[in-house]
Design brief:
The chain has helices at about 5-10, 15-40, 45-70, 75-95, 100-115, 125-135, 150-255, 260-315. It has about 325 residues and is mainly alpha-helical. The protein folds into two domains: about 5-145, no CATH class; about 220-315, Orthogonal Bundle (Helix Hairpins). Helix 2 packs antiparallel against helix 7 (about 150-255). The two termini are about 80 Å apart. Residues about 95-100 and about 315-318 have low confidence and may be disordered. This is MASE2 domain-containing protein. It comes from Marivirga atlantica.
Length: about 325
C-alpha cells in the first residue's frame, strides 16, 4: 500500500487543486449538515452517517484513484462529474435557502472552471439531477427562515473558497507563464539552430556544386591532355621511327664494311642521322613547351577576363 506522501508526489497541479476544493467543499457540507440537524433537532439516522462518511472519504479515494491512473484527465473529469451529482444531492438534502444554494453552485462551478476550463460545462446540469434524486427519497420543504449564523457560515465559506481559488489560479497562471517562457526560449533556440543548419547546408551545397564544376573542368582538361598526348605519341613515334631505323641499318652495315673508306662513309651517314634524330627530339620538346606555354597564357587570359567581368558587374550594381 502506497503512503499518502508518495501518492501526493505523483499528483500534478490539477489533481492537487481539485483535491483541495473537493475536501473543503465536502467538509463544509458536512459541518453545515451537522449544524442544520442540530438547529432543527432532527434525529440522526443512517442517511446522515453515510453522508458524513462520503464527505470524509471520497476526496481521499479520488486522490488515490487519480494517482493510480497517472494523472489522467479523463479520470479527473469523472471525479468532477460525480462531485456535481453529490453536491446537488447535498443541496437538496439539507434544504438550503435560495441564496446559499446559489452560492454553493457558483463555488463548485468556479472550482471546475479553475481545473478544466469551460469545456464540458454541460456537467453543470448534474446539480439539478442530484437535487431531483434527493426528492425521490425525501420530502421537499424550502427553508426561508434559516438562522443568521447558518447564512453567515455559508458566506464565510464562499469567501474562503474564492480566496483559495484566486490563490491557486494565480499560482497556476504564474507557472503557466514560466513554462510558456521556457518553451518560447527553447523554440527561439531551435529556430536559431535551424537557421544555422540551413546556412551550413547551403554552404555545403554551394561547395559541392563548385567542387563538381572544378572536377568537371579538371576532367575535361585531363581528357584533352590525354588525347593530345596520344596524338603526340603517334606523331613523335612516326618521326622517330625513320631515323632510328636508318641508324640501326647503318650500324649493321659498319660490321660488313669491306674497307676503311666504306666504313668512314657509313660513319658519316650515321653521324648525319644522329644529328637528324637530335633535331627531331629538340623539335618535339619545343612543341611540348610551346603548347604548355600557350595553355598557361590562355589560363591567365581567362582569369583576367573573369576579374574584369566581376569588376564590371560591381560597377553596374553601384
Amino acid at each position: 500500500m502506497q503512503s499518502v506522501a508518495s501518492i501526493w508526489k505523483r499528483i500534478d497541479y490539477f489533481g492537487k487543486a481539485s483535491f483541495f476544493f473537493r475536501l473543503l467543499g465536502y467538509l463544509f457540507y458536512g459541518l453545515y449538515l451537522y449544524l442544520f440537524v442540530r438547529e432543527y433537532q432532527i434525529p440522526l439516522n443512517i442517511g446522515h452517517v453515510l453522508i458524513y462518511m462520503v464527505g470524509f472519504f471520497i476526496p481521499w479515494l479520488y486522490l488515490y484513484d487519480y494517482a493510480r491512473h497517472n494523472n489522467s484527465n479523463r479520470t479527473l473529469i469523472k471525479h468532477l462529474t460525480v462531485d456535481f451529482f453529490l453536491m446537488g444531492f447535498y443541496v437538496g438534502f439539507i434544504h438550503l435557502s435560495y441564496i446559499p444554494s446559489v452560492l454553493f453552485i457558483v463555488c463548485t462551478i468556479t472550482s471546475y472552471v479553475a481545473s478544466k476550463g469551460y469545456k464540458g460545462a454541460v456537467r453543470f446540469l448534474l446539480f439539478p439531477l442530484g437535487y431531483l434524486f434527493y426528492l425521490v427519497f425525501f420530502d421537499f420543504t424550502l427553508n426561508t427562515d434559516l438562522p443568521t449564523y447558518l447564512d453567515l457560515f455559508a458566506i464565510v465559506y464562499v469567501f474562503i473558497h474564492l480566496n483559495i481559488l484566486a490563490f491557486i489560479s494565480y499560482r497556476y497562471s504564474r507557472n503557466l507563464h514560466r513554462t510558456k517562457s521556457v518553451v518560447l526560449k527553447q523554440q527561439d533556440e531551435i529556430l536559431a539552430q535551424s537557421d544555422e543548419l540551413k546556412a551550413v547546408n547551403d554552404s555545403l551545397v554551394q561547395s559541392n556544386t563548385n567542387l563538381e564544376k572544378i572536377v568537371g573542368s579538371r576532367t575535361k582538361e585531363l581528357e584533352a591532355k590525354k588525347a593530345k598526348l596520344a596524338e603526340y605519341a603517334f606523331i613523335n613515334g612516326h618521326q622517330l621511327r625513320a631515323p632510328v631505323a636508318t641508324m640501326l641499318g647503318l650500324i649493321n652495315l659498319i660490321a660488313h664494311a669491306e674497307n676503311e673508306e666504306e666504313r668512314k662513309e657509313i660513319t658519316e651517314k650515321l653521324k648525319y642521322e644522329v644529328d637528324l634524330l637530335n633535331l627531331t627530339i629538340k623539335d618535339i620538346r619545343l612543341r611540348l613547351e610551346t603548347d604548355e606555354l600557350i595553355h598557361d597564357e590562355m589560363e591567365a587570359l581567362e582569369e583576367s577576363l573573369s576579374r574584369y567581368r566581376k569588376n564590371l558587374n560591381l560597377d553596374d550594381t553601384l
